[in-house]
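Per reviewer request, we include the raw input and output of the structure prediction for the construct analysed in the revised manuscript.
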Amino acid sequence: MTIIFSIETSCDETSVAIVNELGKIICQITFNQLEHKKFGGVVPEIASRAHLQILQKIIPSCFKKTNLNISDIDLFCATSGPGLIGGLLVGTTIAKSMAIGTGKPFYPINHLEGHLISPAFNNELKFPSLILLLTGGHTQLYLTKKPNDYELLGETIDDAIGESFDKVAKLIGLPYPGGPEIEKLALKGNSNTYALPHPLKNKKNINFSFSGIKTAVSLIVKKQKKIDRKFKENIAASFQNKIIEIIITKVEKVLKTLEEKKINIYDISIVGGVAANKKIRNSFSSAQSLNKYNFIYPPIELCGDNAAMIALACQQKYKNNVKPNTHFKASPRLSINEMNIL
């Protein structure tokens, strides 16, 4: 039985995991760095130092919980990009050192690929499939033809979806991270209160844009004499509703294009930290135009950044005889082919 050890340190979650070749999580420990809240966002230098301190505690703890030794590990892997360079260096250096010390293979794993494969933990993946990646730093649509074969169809040209949630939350005085706070307030708000723009609505491409919505919210906030809870609830509901409208419209557009090309989609995966948003999940499931498709998601606890999904991406590569490499081919926008820092 092949056993994989993985590290994820791309942003402000420090995570380690031990996963077997069947995709079963033997152990996972994820530590959220709460100290960034007082700054209203992630401070890269603080994050990288915290990763180093935390990993020295949770790596031994993970091995202790499983009664495994480092010599029992067959494959080592770590997130190698995209992400904050300091954190990536910490995680990859430690994992690669462990691999060198034991004479075992080391796989550098693309963070986005970890998210793309994450629904495999609780679903049987069918191909070809469409994947909507929604995170703090990325908003992208992929066509997955088979494991390790992803075609980027469209992405954001400015803010990512998670970033836009955080920025709007900050505008109305909510703490970081803003996504869960917006979701909670929106439950009691009227989504029809404010008419917000729909960027790129009439464009033929499948790219996203969210910065204009943030600007529109900013202008509304400036005109308010009093920022009370009711206002926050209504602006949160209006904003979230517009975001959902945009991503559903883009998915509808890309599905129509794929149908014209005779590409039959079996599943639509929604992945990434923002995929934990229940309103987004429910909206896709209830959309009349999408009722013939099967929507799949990772478990809620595996939507955010975690080492288990990095191990699963490693397992898929090993299973499909993809050799460990020391670099990815860089693409112009550094998307799924993000250049490896090693």
